[in-house]
Amino acid sequence: MPIRIAFIALILLTACKPPATEERAAPATGDAGSQANQELQTLFADEWNGRLARNPLFASRMGVTDYNDRLPDMSPAARQRYLDEDLEFLDRLAAIDRAVLPQNEQTNYDLFEFVLGQRTILGKYRPYRIPVLSDAGFHMSVQRMYESMPFDTVADYEQYLSRLRAIGPYFAQNIENMRDGIADGFTQPKVILSGIVPSISGAIVADAEKSSFFSPFRSIPGHFDAADAARLQAEGGRAINDTVIPAYRTFLAFFNDEYIPGARETLGAASLENGKAYYEDLTRYFTTLDDATPHDIHELGLREVARIRAEMEGIIKQVEFDGTFAEFIAYLRTDPQFYVTEPKQLLKEASYIAKKVDGQMPAFFRTLPRLPYGVRAVPDDIAPNYTTGRYWGAPIGGRRGGYYMVNTYALDKRPLYTLAALTVHEGVPGHHHQGAIRQEIEGRPDFRRAFYPHAFGEGWGLYTEKLGIEMDIYETPYDHFGRLSYEMWRAVRLVVDTGMHYKDWTRERAQNFLADNSALSLHNVRTEIDRYISWPGQALAYKMGELKILELRARAEAELGERFDIRDFHDAILMTGGVPLDMLEREIERFIDQVRNGE
Questions:
Q1: Contact yes or no for 246/168 (Cβ under 8 A)
Q2: Is the pLDDT of residue 82 over 80?
Q3: 2, 265, 461, 560: least CB-packed within 10 angstroms?
Q4: How many helices (H) and strands (E) does the chain have?
Q5: pLDDT band at 30, cuts 50/70/90?
Q6: Helix, strand or coil for residue 406?
Q7: The dihedral formed by the CA atoms of 570, 571, 575 and 580, expressed in degrees to the nearest 10
Q8: Is residue 441 pLDDT above 90, yes or no?
Q9: Phi and psi torsions of 293, nearest 5°
């Protein structure tokens, strides 16, 4: 996320019912239980309010407008203060007697402990010194911040103007943090940095009105006084010309003149100070498994690669291709039948698949969300180094739905045979379905609406790719091979992420391993490997989460037999709203017991 923090196919509202409100268990009897519960809810509220104030961009995404005129304070002093506050929150939590709480609040207690615990564990490494990834960063997070903001009144526009004027100081703080990283040797590896440059330079335009930051000023409501509208547009142009574009120019000069020359020559996280411990902590964070180790995950990845490779060979035989595995991959990467030549063609293909999935949803899910989503192209200014597709969630209470973002840059590198798997992963029943359900569940603390455990979230996305077989989404053997190639992609991640960050693999070795075992285009291979280099550990979440969900489904099917209903199982997974994998296992065990007992 952390960090990364991913469209025309509408969910059929008449076929949907809103997610059921979570029933709160009655408070534990006695003064001790009531007092403990009250203290817990106060703690949740204090932490939540503090988090909103710390990160105004996050607050806007959560539908809170109180901080729409400002940007986060990224100074080291503020970061240390936030870490100290989190440790105090954990002390307050430890002082609450968990045993006297009702069961649902015990679950909230455990989740809160996980969130705060992981934040403090990783906070000690001062990760704010690296505020850019290969395809994300502070300079990109502000570019479309307006999508989370209302623009109904003059005051709304004034707040946005204040935010635009705050970009200069916000960039300056991040640059100073990156300078500290250079001094400490805590930087991104030099080898991937040239790919980040276009995401900075792309925001530098000659005409303010061509800037993405000017977007709200292009559609000022018609009921505004003409003088106010003209003034706001003029001030918006001045803020972009006088603050925003100079901030990007300053950042670009710093990046080229200081950061790239000063960046480390090494590749993996293990080469950083306390790097092995850092990567081990990242491994536990992104997999949500306390006993996860880089070595064990690496070996699991190798086994998964071998299993999936055998299935891929079966498809090659099925289509009667006369050649080796490598020759078949070369054929898929180069034959024009697998590619389109216009961006709208790719978007239309994605939209068709998305609508086909929509029609299947009631057969596999009892609870469908109200929130729609659409299909949209990745913006041109970030597309060259961006992943092939990603889900952009809808701001809570905002004016748009979710977006399934499709990368239309370099169309000869965007094969159609992987598009079905990508669509179910990013749209429905993948990330949009999952994220909308989480937003619409009622009766839970606010922090759970924003909690995105990567292994649960990305594991679900990968699980839905395989679910697409049952949903009859894959129309040709090449579509099935594309799905297997995507599964292989995630299995390879277990190998190359641990390989580069823990076992001294080179970038070239990782690229070759991914290229040799999947049908991803070589452009995607490069951008993906650079993404894993820049974001240690996150790539482990997908396969680890998927394998756990598949294991839990197999257990439920075996134990329940004819009483197993896939719709109820999927609700049992998703109505948790997002939990670490060990907690998900306990939830499914309760589900199995309830069905067995006729509850």
A1: yes
A2: yes
A3: 265
A4: 24, 3
A5: low
A6: strand
A7: -30
A8: no
A9: -130, 145
